[in-house]
Amino acid sequence: MATSITTPKLTTTLSSSTLQTLLRNHKFSILNRSPFITTPQLPSTTFNLSTKALGFLSSSSRQAAIKSRRFVTRAESANGAEPRTYDFDLFTIGAGSGGVRASRFAANFGASVAVCELPFATISSETTGGVGGTCVLRGCVPKKLLVYASKYSHEFEESLGFGWSYNSEPTHDWSTLMANKNAELQRLTGIYKNILNNAGVKLIEGRGKIVDPHTVDVDGKLYTARNILVSVGGRPFIPDIPGKEYVIDSDAALDLPSKPTKIAIVGGGYIALEFAGIFNGLQSDVHVFIRQKQVLRGFDEEIRDFVAEQMSLKGIEFHTEESPQAVIKSADGSLSLKTNKGTIDGFSHVMFATGRKPNTKNLGLETVGVKLDKNGAILVDEYSRSSIPHIWAVGDVTDRMNLTPVALMEGGALAKTLFANEPTKPDFSAIPSAVFSQPPIGQVGLNEQQAIEEYGDIDVYTANFRPLKATLSGLPDRVFMKLVVSAKTNQVVGLHMCGEDSAEIVQGFAVAIKAGLTKAQFDSTVGVHPTSAEEFVTMRTPTRKIRNSSSGGKTDSEAKAAAGV
Amino acid sequence: MSRKMLIDGDIGSSDDNNQYDFDLFVIGAGSGGVRASRFSAQYGAKVGICELPFHPVSSETIGGVGGTCVIRGCVPKKILVYGANFGPELEDAREYGWQVNEKVDFDWTKLLHKKTEEILRLNAVYKRLLSNAGVKLFEGEGRIVGPNEVEVIQLDGTKLSYSAKHILIATGSRAQRPDIPGQELAITSDEALSLDELPKRVVVLGGGYIAVEFASIWRGMGSTVNLCFRKELPLRGFDDEMRALVARNLEGRGIILHPQTNLTQLVKTEDGIKVTTDHGEELMADVVLFATGRAPNTKRLNLQAAGVELDKTGAIKVNEYSQTNVPSIWAIGDVTNRINLTPVALMEGTMLAKTVFGNEPSKPDHSNVPCAVFCIPPLSVVGLSEEQAIEQATGDILVFTSTFNPMKNTISGRQEKTLMKLIVSAESDKVIGASMCGPDAPEIMQGVAIAIKCGATKAQFDSTVGIHPSAAEEFVTMRSVTRRIAAAGKRKTNL
Fold first, then answer.
1. Where residue A551 falls among pLDDT bands split at 50, 70, 90?
2. Contact across the interface for B106 and A505, Cβ inside 8 Å
3. Is a pLDDT exceeding 50 seen at residue A555?
4. What is the pLDDT of residue A549?
């Protein structure tokens, strides 16, 4: 939630509170002069991004300024033991979360690094992108900002129960939100550029394409590198159905010119649910179409049911087991969605949140022989190395676990492996994640079904309660929490929550679960009162004990039967 | 078990060679007392408990099942904090595109009414919990008669006498008033939670958590708030850097701070209460709140009859098992003045039941107890503050801090930083303290508390992947040390 976010920990580096204040007051003009940031050879680039005022166009000219100034630095690397010399030790294609992290860290370890990225645009394509990548420009950040905006309508409702009243219902002005959101994105993309700049990474604007295992072509100019990192991310994927051209994806949904009056969202994954919450909160009529019976495949079953129920109570209409077949535009401009069950009319927007695909086309990967999986993701080993030595890949383009902090971890590990003489594998165990639906979900470790498969005997602790705030507001908001414990070892192997603040709450527990702590250790911790989170340390009686001691190959359905006992 | 109390008329009957009316008699049905009673009953003990009649404002003769936490503390306080939070939230909504009418009204009476409803509901829930556990509840004032004897003075003045194998004192504490001329014009937190109307002008005396919480509550609702405290910063005992940020935030939200200030006199005038400070300043107030500490409720318990020892603050002295110097008499919760928090009283109550009736001597563990201050934005901590760490350190201390602008503020424009801090022992790499001031801090700190309680290292924090975008993820992404403090380099401050 920090603006530092994924980022480069702008904030921890600048820990002095005085400096923080200065920063706040002077925006980024002083950033480069900060004594806290190692800027070996930089003349201070004055990067005066005045937050909210900047239009989109101004970025490219600034970029050009930076580019011209930065180019010659570190032409040759110190460790020239190899026979061949290269322009760079590392050339990164794609300046999103993973690429920026790997580049910066590599530079900090002394490598000469360049990164190329497409020009900024809120909607991505083969020719547009922007420094910061999906997370900053078309994902986590703008999404969360819209979640904040949309949550207010719920808060207005809640406030009535706490004695507040309004002469007239608050109304929402879409264009104010979009303008302020875009100003913030501009600010962030500027910060990212600055961070690269300060780390001594050369930023090249343009489309990178691999020509041979040590050469990248950026819009006709060739750069050689000892190592190439592909971190080009993924993009929304829309299935090929009639009327596809009327459909928007999440990129567009984050930057609509006007607010949908009635929107169909196709998909049951986290993106679909997050946007359903956003548009519902901003007072659109929201219909969600999912192919299966439940939303959020892969999540804990009880969470899946709980979140759908809570969202329905807020007025979102779910259409289950409906697959889209066509989108039809009427004469009045409204859209209809035809599914296997019928046709619903009158949508101002139809959004597809039907998955994302790695951006591996036209990268030259085939020519050098980098192997892809059947979804087009780059196949990598545990160290993020592709089938071609010296070509590496991190982040969504590898389709391992498509989360910003995971890309950061992969990028950090790669820099260590390549330039710190410390081969490091990213560790994919017990990675927490959140869905910013309303209410949000936080989870870490195994869901109940996975735990049964892996441990056989488990104890499940659940709590389903009305939070203090809801008792006053009178709204039907509830909180669901769940601990999954290995019966044999007492270790907490999974933790799930749906309810207000889940995403914030789960982080600390993730440390505990990653560290392999036991239920007894949870219980020995005193609660913080009155909070929702304290429920996780006060769950005394298992809701159910599941025993299939023969362990190993028990199937889901058998486990479920046992759970019912 | 659930029906036991209803048929539990014959108190004197005993199955084994137990000559007592009760195995356990508890005086005080607050958090600690109710917990100890219920758990003891679940171990098979015959339990009686007495509590004063219900009223939102406590006195020597008024209390209520649920105790301070439910009736006059955590719960009503949190409800008012929720209520107060909406004020600034409405302001923040504007930059997010919401057009909120200029005329927004806040109705204190409505909130107070709903708060009382909720408290009455909880009071009933607590009573039901006791009855379901088979605990016999008496309404009236409990007193010690001897090491194994108690009496309950009922509302009508009649006395009931019971013998008990064990007596537990869990009578809690009450707000104290400083001895200032005109002190009777001021109120304590009890009354502050039950005012008939929202005060327009408030003077709060005190720098502890109660003072800053009420200052935040009233300010959020639009009152003019003056906060006077003796030290340079509020919240003595907390991490100094956090204290400084809390002070800045309170000020940023419009509370007028008067550090190093005491009150010398309160005078009633036509325009309200005229408050004079020791700097000679005069402040006008509709309400003056004394949040200057709480004292254990031990005066009318007749403890001397059994020879129960008190410390100089009037708190009951207990050993690690919560046992007083009289072996059959025990005490838990605020009346023992150890760590005065609901969850600590619950822990002490649970351990007591285990020790006395569960055949499993168990000491409550007072180390690494997390806690929260619900000022706006809130503060939450677990483990050592930087100052404590330096004080107790045998080796070097590493301090990691992160100060950042919460994402929500990037659009709302609110000028308020969040600060997070980890204190690490350089030698062992163990995280020995964590603190945070910012939105959701209390919710975020709970999980961190488990890790710290269990001795997690900084490396283990770092190996945990963040949840993005959250504020909490900063706790697992603090890579560079902000400062290293050598074992010898102890700083002394007098804030």
1. very low
2. no
3. no
4. 62
Contact residues, chain A, for B419 at CB < 8 Å: 17
For the stretch A57-99, pLDDT in tens is 333 333 433 333 333 333 344 444 555 799 999 999 999 999 9
Nearest to B472 among A9, A187, A507 (CB): A507
DSSP state for residue A217 in the 8-state scheme? E
Beta bridge partners of A442: A434, A497
Residues of B in contact with A431 (CB under 8 A): 465
Quick one: tokens of B477?
Answer: 């992404």
What is d(CA B360, CA A120) in angstroms, rounded to the nearest whole number?
66
How much is the average pLDDT of B221-247?
97
Secondary structure class of B417 (helix, strand, coil): coil
Other Cβ atoms closer than 10 A to B374: 25
Q: Do residues B106 and B197 lie in contact, with contact meaning Cβ atoms separated by under 8 Å?
A: no
Structure tokens at B22: 């009760």
Q: For chain B, give the percent of residues with pLDDT over 70.
A: 95
> Given phi > 0 = left and psi -120 to 50 = alpha, else beta, which region is A321?
left
Count of CB pairs separated by less than 8 Å, A with B: 338
Instruction: Give the CA radius of gyration of chain B.
Output: 24
CB-count burial class (<10 Å; 0-12, 13-18, 19+) for A222: exposed
For residues A343 and A97, give the distance between their C-alpha atoms in angstroms, rounded to a whole number. 40
Q: Is the peptide bond before A530 cis (omega within 30 degrees of 0)?
A: yes
Residue A76 makes CB contacts below 8 A (sequence gap 6+) with A85, A112
Catalytic residue list of A? 529
- Inter-chain residue contact B89 with A141, CB threshold 8 Å: no
Question: With an 8 Å Cβ cutoff, is A270 touching chain B?
Answer: no
Distance CA A279, CA A182 (A): 18
Binned at pLDDT 50, 70 and 90, residue B492 comes out as low
Q: Residue B418: its chain A contacts at CB < 8 A?
A: 1-2
Q: What gap in Å lies between CA A540 and CA B441, rounded to an integer?
A: 25
pTM for this model (two decimals):
0.88
Q: Name the E strands within A405-561.
A: 433-435, 441-445, 458-465, 479-486, 492-498, 544-546
Average pLDDT over residues A365-391: 97
Coil vs helix vs strand at A197: helix
The predicted pLDDT at position B28 comes to 97
Contact residues, chain A, for B100 at CB < 8 Å: 156, 166, 170
pLDDT digits (tens, 9 = 90+) for A97-129: 999 999 999 999 999 999 999 999 988 898 999
Please name every residue paired with B485 in a beta bridge, in sequence order, or none if there are none: B397
Interface test with B, best of A13, A137, A511 (most B CBs within 10 A): A511
Reported as half-sphere exposure (CB side, CA atoms, 13 A), residue B272 has a value of: 15
Largest CA distance in chain A: 77
Does residue B12 carry a pLDDT above 80? no
ipTM reported for the complex, 2 dp: 0.92
Question: What one-character DSSP code corresponds to residue B335?
Answer: G
Within 8 A by CB and 6+ apart from A25, the residues are none
Pick the closest to residue A503 from A405, A393, A427 (CA basis). Answer: A405
Minimal CA–CA distance to B254: which of B283, B281, B227?
B227
Asked if A504 lies within 8 A of B471 by C-beta distance, the reply is: yes
How large is the angle between the packed helices A556-564 and A448-455, nearest 10 degrees?
100
Asked if residue A511 has pLDDT above 90, the reply is yes
**With 60 as the cut, is the pLDDT of residue A523 above it?**
yes
Question: Which residues have a Cβ under 8 Å from the Cβ of A167 and sit 6 or more positions away?
Answer: B101, B103, B104
DSSP code for A528:
P
Q: How far apart are CA A8 and CA A411, in angstroms?
A: 12
DSSP annotation of B161: E
Measured in angstroms, the CA of A501 and the nearest CA of chain B are apart by: 7
> What is the pLDDT, as a whole number, of residue B366?
97
